[in-house]
Design brief:
This protein is mainly alpha-helical and 123 residues long. Helix content is 46%, strand content 11%.
């Protein structure tokens, strides 16, 4: 049994699924924080999102983001490291992710998104 979570291929990423996934405020906040982290390091751990919600609720949202193709998860020991699938999304839907992140940044206060995320450099 593989510990690697299932990810859709680039061709399997569908626009309705991506947009539906982004319509949830918690998932939008996760994507926004992952995008903010890209400036320093491309990955965050599950625990980096604890301020958003409880562990089981976050696990549900992480799975939804992974299943629709917005996020990639890799397992290292007991940690799950997550990053945006920017290249795949840009190939399928040019400009979509940047437009969503830019719009979310404009509405960060109203959406209760973390404006400046405490980034942790990974070795």
């Amino acid at each position: 049994m593989s510990r690697t979570p299932h990810h859709p291929t680039r061709e399997q990423i569908e626009l309705p699924m991506v947009l539906d996934c982004l319509s949830d405020p918690t998932r939008l906040a996760i994507v926004y924080q992952l995008a903010q982290q890209e400036r320093v390091s491309s990955e965050l751990r599950c625990g980096d999102f604890n301020a958003l919600s409880g562990k089981s609720n976050l696990a549900y949202h992480f799975a939804k983001l992974r299943e629709c193709g917005l996020m990639q998860t890799r397992i290292v020991g007991t940690s799950r490291l997550m990053r945006l699938r920017r290249e795949d999304l840009e190939a399928r839907f040019p400009g979509l992710l940047d437009a969503v992140i830019k719009s979310a940044a404009k509405d960060a206060d109203r959406l209760q998104l973390v404006a400046e995320f405490d980034v942790v450099e990974m070795d």
